Amino acid sequence: MKGATGGVQRKVQDVYGCAYYVQCYAHQLNLIMQQATSHIPKISQFFFRCRGVFLHFSKSFKRMAVLDEVVAHRLPGASTTRWNFHSRAVNTVYEHKDELVKCFQTIRDRGDFDAISKREAGSCMRMLDDEVFCFILALFHKIMPHVDMLFNHLQKRNIDSVFIAGITQRFTHSIQAIRDSVPSLVEDEEYRGPVQEPPLKKQRAMGEETQQHLSIEVCDTIMSHAKERCSFTNHLISATLLQGDLFPQHSRKFPDSALGTTVDAYPMLDKARLKTELSLIYENEDFQGCSGALALFQVVMENNLQDTFTETISLLKILITTPMTTAESERCFSTLKRIQTFLRNTMAQDRLNALAMLSIEKKLTRDIPDFNTRVIERFATRRAKFLYK
Fold first, then answer.
1. Predicted confidence band of residue 267 (pLDDT cuts 50, 70, 90)
2. 32 and 222 in contact (C-beta within 8 Å)?
3. What is the C-alpha to C-alpha distance for residues 141 and 313, in angstroms, rounded to an integer?
4. Contacts of 230 (CB under 8 A, 6+ apart)
5. pLDDT for 201-225, tens place per residue?
6. What is the per-residue pLDDT across 164-196, written as a single tens digit (0 to 9) for each?
7. Cβ-proximal residues to 336 (8 Å cutoff; 6+ apart), any chain
8. Which DSSP string corresponds to 262-315?
9. Measured by CB atoms within 10 angstroms of the end CB, which terminus of the chain is less buried, N or C?
């Protein structure tokens, strides 16, 4: 919980000094992308204009019918709170750009549309033919898969600080790789977007130097905000001590600075004994295949080594029980909003709990063989007894 001075966080830390506040990393990813894109005017304008494409169709069923007829693909709604909606929007516009141009042209040229619809359709056509818009669209089409991959990882239940530290580093490395390849990408015709029809009016050309500068600025801004938001605080620094892919590096040079920060954050740990135990873990090949704190903890417990690695077990327990995301718990509120509608407002608590559990654990119910058939048979039997008693 927040409130570092007089809020819940402060009250908890007054009693439990090592109970550190950790913001949900799924939410932090949204903040990273929102802040990174809003600081660059051209990028901010791009997403604003991209959102206008979806708003144009969402305002009218008549326009939506033309979209279904020409494009045969619905456009995702844009949301300011969840960044994956922006990612879906970019990918949809990039993949169906030519069909969208034809769709807008149809709306503009047909006589049964009003003047406002025709004017907006013409504006969207000019936007999709704009060189700057197409370039930024192609750039983010290359960035978005890495954002989606990170977003999907952050929605998982069984993630810990070791896992977070690893995927955060891989995300920054992927963006850095895109940044390093900018000169070759700018020269690539595919990077400029799909082949376009000649624009209705001459657009200002965007030179390669400007394209490179904008691409580098976007990548640098995303990486800087990612490092700032996902900065290696106490729990992440501690996680690097137990990150499996770093064991070979640690065996050559022990991470004394990370160990010192970890012991300062969790003073109940014995620094000398923890260093000895970690040195043995780094040198043992059986532990190098472990990915994450939970996997390492299970290996130690399965081999009855908890008495040998007492301090490591204590550190693992801290890292395993530190929550990294609140996305799973917040789904309960979304589920309640979907289930308890106006028509179902009088349902009893038992039925509401049962429907919520089925909705939240729908993946589990789908894996049960013949779940729907068995439920229907059970319900039909109960009803038959009720009718004929």
1. confident
2. yes
3. 43
4. 25, 28, 32, 164, 168, 236
5. 444 556 778 888 888 888 888 888 8
6. 888 888 888 999 998 888 777 666 655 454 444
7. 352, 356
8. HHHH-TTS-HHHHHHHHHHHHH-HHHHT--SHHHHHHHHHHTT-TTTSHHHHHH
9. C
